[in-house]
Amino acid sequence: MNYTLNQLKIFLAITEHESVTKASEELHLTQPAVSIQLKNFQLQFDIPLTETIGRKIHITDFGYEIAEAAKNILEQVARINYKTMAFQGQLIGKLKISVVSTGKYVMPHFLADFIMENPGVNLIIDVTNKGKVIKSLENNEVDFSLVSVLPTGLNWESISLLKNKLFLVGKEIVDNQNRKDKELFENLPLIYRERGSGTRHAMESYIKQNNIAALKKLELTSNEAVKQAILAGMGYSIMPLIGLKNELLNKELQIIPIENLPIETTWQMIWLKGKKHSPVAEAYLKYINEMKNEIVERKFNWYENFQIN
Asked: Do 164 and 188 touch, CB atoms closer than 8 A?
């Protein structure tokens, strides 16, 4: 037997996803590269690890046994690497963060340099809806959460990272001559996020405060889905600017100027009050306090200085 750690890692990913395509996406490799490594790995065993029926790959019972062994081997290797780093005085351990869906455009920029500087840190990010984010925080399953609407009923501490600006967005500019903003808004087919979403909460608050009789067209479960629906010409929505950079630069989407917009909230990283942080979480919190202004200036310059033409 002469298999490599890389082959074990690839086979484990294939086993977990039952898909060469998804394994290649997870490992940031091409599908041919993953297929070749699977073939080379299989050549070292007389018993099949997988079988293909139609276009779907299935793992054999023997394959699952090998995958379990591979998982144990890789975990032991990770422990060796962590112990080596610990003896060298490097920061090691897990950092768990839950992020509301639009926060995926924000949080990685506040993490990238920290993770690069600390290779012994294993980062786990769960991007999900607001309800699940707050639940993971409440159950003490994560170190930090990123939200734009602060939760009620929890004792938390927070640090503000970035303004969250929400504009009315459409595929085309609306002709609002001889019509007030309120009348214009009431005649637009509106696309909503699902209930419990921070974006939905901000949009509904704006509509209520301005006594608008909104025309609800569609409800979708992510800002990305809302964006694609707008691009398809299905309607308009109040959306966070942070996820629209490319579409605005390419003039695929338009900001609709309207009274009392943008809505502004704040992206905040929160944690349970009194939580005893791990050394990794403590180090990251210190890093954010020291570096957040520099990160905003360096990575969000376009966003902070955005103006409607």
From this structure: no
Secondary-structure percent of the chain, ordered helix, strand, coil, rounded to 5: 45, 25, 30
Q: Are residues 69 and 187 in the same domain?
A: no
Residue 236 is given by DSSP the state: B
Residue-level pLDDT at 175: 63
* Alpha-helix runs per DSSP H in the chain: 5-17, 20-27, 31-42, 61-87, 107-117, 130-138, 181-186, 198-209, 223-231, 245-249, 279-299, 301-304
The two structure tokens encoding residue 56? 């779907």
Contact between 199 and 239 under an 8 Å Cβ cutoff? The reply is yes
Residue 197 has pLDDT above 90, yes or no: no
Surface-to-core class of residue 24, CB atoms within 10 Å of its CB (0-12 exposed, 13-18 middle, 19+ buried): buried
232 has pLDDT over 50 = yes
- Alpha-carbon distances, residue 64 vs 31, 61, 230 (angstroms): 21, 5, 44
Give the domain range for residue 36.
5-87
CATH (domain of 272): 3.40.190.10
